[in-house]
Amino acid sequence: MLIQFYRIVILLLSITFLNSCKTNENVTGQSMNPDGRYDSEFPDKSVSDQLSEISKSIKKLDCLAFYMTYVFPPENQLKTNSITKENIKELSVSEDVTNESVAGTATIVYYDGKTIGLLTCAHVVDYPDTIFNWYDAEKTILQSISVKVRQQNYITGLPDGEDIEIVVLDRKNDIALLKKKLDAHVERPDVFTYKSGNTGELEWGTFVYIMGYPLGNLMVTRAIVSNPDKTKNGVFLTDALYNKGISGSPVFALRDGVPNFEWIGMAKSASAENFTYLKPDEGMLDHTHVKYPYQGVFYAQKKLNINYGVTFSVTIEAIESFYKKNKRMIENAGINFDELLP
Considering the entire predicted model, what is its pTM? Predict the structure, then answer.
């Protein structure tokens, strides 16, 4: 009897121990005690399925602008308001076709069977119609004028259709809406469907994901939020590693675990510094005698140096305000994404 009693005691202790080792999770992977706040820790479940779904609606955006550049002699006395389309060729001493290119990211936010709506940053598609260059720092002697003659916007992976059109451009908040009409009977593109969040609820250390095309590659990166009070200015700050091409990438946060992603904004820029350096004429370089002094001509070059780890993003509230402010123009273009931005 005593042995049987001991066996029963050991069995009860074993059951108690096993119960104490159980995790505090339900079948969905969410915490049994949700706090309603954005998560500030790594998710405890895989987010691969959700990120794979999101990636299908995110596209690479390439913009190319062609300019006709007219150069004037140093002794000219021209004023910008005296030059017209009729006399610019006569006044210039040479002309040449140049181009400027920018790459970014665009998200498909609307599709009705014939028209696609895409959201991106304004600076990716905003090329000036005219560019002036000067011989002097005071800008009194005109060196050249570059006039935009054509712009091409291209989205990788979209079916054939008409050219991509800029519907609305907001330079102040760096937001742009594009549209493209597709040919009939094409494969339906995937549309972004995750609901918008609230950047006013971001906190120090909130964990976020950013997905886009840095340097032309579809990638996802993670970051944490700093200075959440800055969201009042229409932007928020993270430590994401920004590279060229990430502009326009959507930003997400998790609320109470997987799969509760919310769309909280769009990456737009990084902290950067311009600096000027002297570059030798490549045609004059002799790489077989690198230890000899260079005797050729130097050219002043400008370069943008990115301060990695300081990235600014447009808030979802700024995007919502952009949509409401320009809703009539957007609807006239055949686009409506009320379901995303209530």
Answer: 0.78
